[in-house]
Write a structure and sequence with these properties.
Distance between the termini: 24 Å
Low-confidence stretches: none
Radius of gyration: 15 Å
CATH class: Alpha Beta
Largest sheet: 6 strands, antiparallel
CATH architecture: Roll
Number of domains: 1
Number of strands: 10
Shape: globular
Order of helices and strands: HEEEEEEHHEHEEHEH
Structural class: alpha+beta
Strand content: 15-25%
Strand order of the largest sheet: 6-5-4-1-7-10
Length: 178
């Protein structure tokens, strides 16, 4: 398995597509995709504080973030982290997530966990969330076309934790990663 970020497809501000591309490449390299799961991080207020993330040395607040977890090792893959790629799950958790008492209950990070072997064929994003009211791109789009899997696994639905999606589960990160 190649483990340098530069060897994978990456587009800034498209973490969900970066992880999809990483999963496809790992599958092409012969990795057992059943050993991986996608973690869609967010919360009900769509504000998650993360440490050790670019472009800041201070906590950065994203509306959501997407990472890949290899279960058997256990390792985390995060293109936007300044931590090693991949990083041990324990180190990633300790150096990325703030304690609940530091952030308050409304900013606690939750994750929708999706098996990679389900995410690859089913993920759907037409990139509408990256277009402003005037129709302009909020960030330069990737050079490849949008990922249009099954409409049942649209990015908007994945991030709405009140929506039930088969083969996924929702967990509180603090209890899940350690």
């Amino acid at each position: 398995m190649v483990t340098q970020k530069k060897d994978y497809v990456y587009t800034q501000n498209f973490c969900e597509e970066n992880i999809w591309q990483l999963g496809r490449q790992l599958q092409a390299e012969g990795e057992d995709v059943a050993d991986f799961e996608v973690l869609m991080l967010s919360n009900e207020v769509r504000q998650i504080p993360l440490l050790s993330h670019q472009p800041s040395s201070e906590p950065i607040v994203w509306d959501y973030h997407v990472i890949l977890r290899q279960k058997s090792k256990p390792l985390m893959f995060d293109f936007d982290s300044v931590l090693p790629f991949p990083c041990s799950t324990a180190d990633y958790h300790e150096q990325t997530f703030m304690a609940d008492d530091q952030v308050g209950s409304r900013w606690v990070v939750w994750a929708r966990c999706i098996p990679l072997n389900r995410y690859l064929p089913a993920f759907y994003s037409n990139r509408a969330h990256m277009i402003d009211a005037e129709g302009q791109e909020l960030s330069p789009f990737p050079e490849y076309p949008p990922i249009l899997g099954e409409p049942a696994m649209r990015l908007e639905d994945i991030l709405d934790f009140s929506v039930s999606i088969s083969c996924t589960n929702i967990v509180r990160l603090g209890r899940y990663c350690v």
